[in-house]
Amino acid sequence: MVYLPFLGYNGWAYTIGHKQCYHCEKELIKCNTLRAFYKGRPMGVSVRVFIIEEDDTVHKLSHAAFERLTRQDPKEYLPKYAGQKVRYALIAVQMKNRKPVDILHTEESFFNFDTTGRLDFSDRNEMIELVYDSLPPIEINRPKEKIVDARHHFAKKKYKRKFTWKPTPQIAETIVGMIFGKSR
Fold first, then answer.
1. The whole model's pTM is what?
2. Whose CA, among 22, 45, 106, 169, lies 20 to 30 Å from 147?
3. Buried b / exposed e across 29-61, counting CB within 10 Å, b at 16+?
């Protein structure tokens, strides 16, 4: 599975034959989200989206607003962030009886806003190209060479450097507190 923000149904896209979750770097069978899916266990999953400002203030963005933003709904924009590159975190949360019980998966990336506060997708093609370039080469009946094709490793590093970020412990703690409530 490869997660591509703003692609596919509800932002998810799948790549046939890929054996590793692109962001958590686990084998697909070990990725908690997919493991639950493949075992067919009934589980409620909620997606939470948080915007992190430059001063590390965390704001919850409704999933409906996130969907409208990514679909470029003309009525949905955030003028507060006009002309800015803003960090966001997308969190898949396991729910039981409508209460969060576990964090299944996290994605940290950036929103680029245009001058009106709508999402700017100008770097989307580069992002997609890097994701697909990150896939390991297919080696079917290929003769052994002394030169190793490592382009996919460099593309993955560039993707992570340009399109992802790592939350500080304080930001992570704030997000967990917002998901589970202050007293977990």
1. 0.69
2. 22
3. eebbbbebeeeeeeeeeebbbbbbeeeeebeeb
